[in-house]
Amino acid sequence: MALLEVRDLTVVFQRRGEKPFTAVDEVSFDVEPGQTVGLVGESGCGKSVTSLAIMGLLPSRGATVTGSVRLEGQELLTLSDRQMRDKRGKDLGMVFQDPLSSLNPVIPIGIQVTEVLERHRGMQRKRAMREAEELLRRVGIPDPRRRLDEYPHQLSGGMRQRALIAIALACAPRLLIADEPTTALDVTIQAQILALLAELVRDTGTALVMITHDLGVVAGLCDEVNVLYGGRVVERGERHALFAEPRHPYTHGLLASIPRLDAPRGERLNPIRGSVSDNIPWTTGCAFAPRCPRAIDPCTAVTPALEADLNGRLLRCHNPVPAEAPVPA
Amino acid sequence: MALGSVRKDRIDALAETANTPEEDSGVSLAASAWRRLRRNPVFLIGAGIIVVFIVVAILSPWLAPHDPADRSLVDQVIKARNQIPAPQEGHPLGGDDQGRDLFSRLLVGSQQTLLVGVLATLLGLAGGLVLGTLAGALAGWVDSLVMRAVDVMLAVPGILLAVSIAALFAKPNLYTLIVAVAMVQVPVFARLLRGSMLAQRASDHVLAARALGVRPRAIVFRHMLPNALGPVIVQSTLVLAIAIIDAAALSFLGLGNPDDKRPEWGTMLASAQGVIDSHPHLAFLPAACIIVVALGFTLVGESMRDALDPKNRR
Amino acid sequence: MLRYTVRRLLQLVAVMAVLSLLLFAWLRALPGGPVSALLGDRATEEARRNLRAQLGLDQPIIVQYLKFLGRALSGDFGTSTGVQTGDSAVEIFLQRFPATLELSVIALVIAVAVGIPLGYMAARKRDSLFDNMSVVSSLIGVAVPVFFLAYLLKFVFAEKLGWLPDSGRQAGDIDATRVTGFFILDGLLTREWDAALSAFTHLILPAVALATIPFAVVFRITRAAVLDVLNEDYVRTARSKGLTAPVIRGRHVLRNAMLPVVTTIGLQTGGLLAGAILTEKVFAYPGLGQALALSFEKRDFPVLQMLVLCAAMVYVLVNLAVDLSYAVIDPRVRTQ
């Protein structure tokens, strides 16, 4: 049994007096214990909404969540608010994008770590403080005892993100969700944080769902990669295979648009044409069709299904990039 | 008074909206604000009240069935028995303690209220415009000096300032009342205009105009002032409500227009104090008029402020 | 922190100096000065000149100001010429200050104790009927002239229903011992319960009237601040930790939302002083507001000068206290 099973997860937003908007559309994926799974896509593809839906953090008004999210076989979507609160922070941890705004500016770092220990592990403040110091040390914050009494604005960006990771991992959750954890950081710090996440995941056996628009992050960290477009998974595969041989034109385009140092001089970058706002609805065909260089007639008439190719790669495309012959096992 | 016990933050936040960039889709700030306002019931109710009030104020000399100063019912007033004219044929609300037709006085009173509110607001705006533009456009020591003075004025609670000023004229009349109410608003407008000027000085369209060699005076009048218009309209609407309430408070303290021939709601309310126990309607009716009109301007001002707030745009 | 406080106190001195000069100049530059007030319009020119010389008004205005300043610094603001003729302005102030402070504090407590919880609830139930009703009633609260509301309360609860007294600070037949000048406190200290109760019932109506506007403003600011904070990322983080609702509310939402509310409360103290002028007049409440209204009426310049300066000083001091309390709530200010 997989640790996390997401089946046909659908999130529809409805504001008063406006048309409903489907942000996540029948998304399914599994996460095995200890595995790192990437959700990749441009902003607006539904990856963050997926993570908030798993955590049960979407607003109760205006957002309708259907489908199924099972953690160790237990359905999360039907849990009461109280039961879900017991899961969050204990079995499910989350790291957010902007560490400065995600930490409370008027509360010392120490309290922000200990409150989760007090809540889920029933620790007294004093013991929790010792534990918090240890946690901060483990995520690589120097002089952790002093940091306990400091406030978020007194820490550097990388240190803040380390503190957020310490908070998310405080109760040794089975699953950690990281939503663009490096986007707001300097490039040098990004690499450090990714290395830290990889190390922690390896040491603790926590499974990780990595949400990012940055294929570089995925390449270094994830075992399996889901590419999302317009709220649906368009391609899924093992990391090395996917990078070596992207088959969906969108994945292909994403990889081709990364500047490469080893590219021949004079070669042009290949950006994907248009923007997410050019989408057509999935019900009338493939949402990516208007931007797709390989679009053919059925693409704007028939909704493509998510199907496995000969190598076991899952694809949602009428006219995928040709694959090499299947490699005999 | 309430809004007039000036909140610098609120003024400054409003000033900031002068520098809100246009939306991607090219919908201007004013257009998108207007789109939201049209559907906002709070705005529509407020606007309805204001329109009715202005129409009545302008037409009141023709609408009023009697001369508001004519003491035609005086023979029905018996001071000793505390008796005043009851509602009767031709006098739907009866008379006041001087035997004048109450209904006509209420109608004509709207004119004075409108006059005081509008003139005081315009005067306050003019003063604030001079100070704020000077400070915002010239910066440097002029700015420091003007803003220090403005902050000192803001340090005195609004109504206290108005009362002080009104009390200092030997004989209160309509114009001293207007000046007193207007003076309170000068620092408010000055701070608002300076804030929006500063917000814009650093903005791209002003930099572009400067880079093109447009003369400073033209930049101020053609590029900066028009953009400050939105916040100024909002503030003026709110100030109108404050001015009407402040003017009533001054009349209540005996610092209003003593001219009995020109009825004014605040004065009517003040002069009804003596008979409030036996004839409360003499006080309640003018008070209700003040409240409804002030509420109308407040509703419109607040909903416009919300509509201009970039946080609410979507 | 200390340097900041000292700098603010120096600013305060500067503001007071400028304000006193402006006030002083204004009082003397305008027609209807103390001479006409004391002698009336029909006095002879000679009588006027004598009085001017007697009051020192014939000297250059700068000399007058410096003399005034010198006396003021030694605690002499002159003698009342109308409000309580013969008493010194300082005496009048000290006598009436506890009354107005008692009234303002109770009004502020009402405004805060009702405004903050209501504002929080309205924000939590945004766009609900409760929210819309409270927003509209807070706008109405702002549009009602204070003195009219005072009259309305007096008319209904004192005249018609007779539940509460209509004027004064304490029932006349109570012979209470005076200790601090705060009547409720005095009653409690001396265990004269009937005196404390009487002082309290006398305070209810004026305090409610005075509290409406600060209440409406505190309500609105709290609502807006809570709405802002609820959208903050750190509240989402707190929820992702599985914290219980009371912890999220108390530790994460309210504490941050209090920043703008504290500023507002500070600013409202100025409005309280102004509102006291009108409220105290309606309820014949013997406080500073009543004295101020009287000093305008009778052109009692020494009293007027003293009270306006004190009002401004209280206002500036409260704002200083607000800025300092900011440092307590917000570590970003404290550690800069």
Q: What features would you highlight for this structure?
A:
heterotrimer; A: 329 residues; alpha/beta; four-stranded antiparallel beta sheet; 12 strands; globular; B: 314 residues; mainly alpha; 0% strand; disordered N terminus
- How big a fraction of the residues of chain A is strand? 15-25%
Order of helices and strands of chain C: HHHHHHHHHHHHHH
Average pLDDT level of chain A: 86
- Taken as a percent bin, the fraction of beta residues of chain C is under 5%
User: How many whole angstroms does the radius of gyration of chain A measure?
Assistant: 21 Å
Number of strands of chain A: 12
What characterizes the major β-sheet of chain C? none
Main sheet of chain A: which strands, in order across? 6-7-8-3-9-10-12-11
The residue fraction in helices of chain C comes out at: over 70%
Shape of chain A from CA axes?
Answer: globular
Overall mean pLDDT of chain C: 79
Low-confidence stretches of chain C: none
Task: Please report the distance between the alpha carbons of the first and last residues of chain A.
Answer: 25 Å
Structure classification of chain A: alpha/beta
In whole angstroms, the N-to-C terminal distance of chain C is 9 Å
Structural class of chain C: mainly alpha
Number of helices of chain A: 11
- What is the H-and-E element order of chain A? EEEHEEHEHHHHHEHEHEEHHEE
Number of helices of chain C: 14
Unreliable runs of chain A: none
Share in helix of chain A: 25-40%
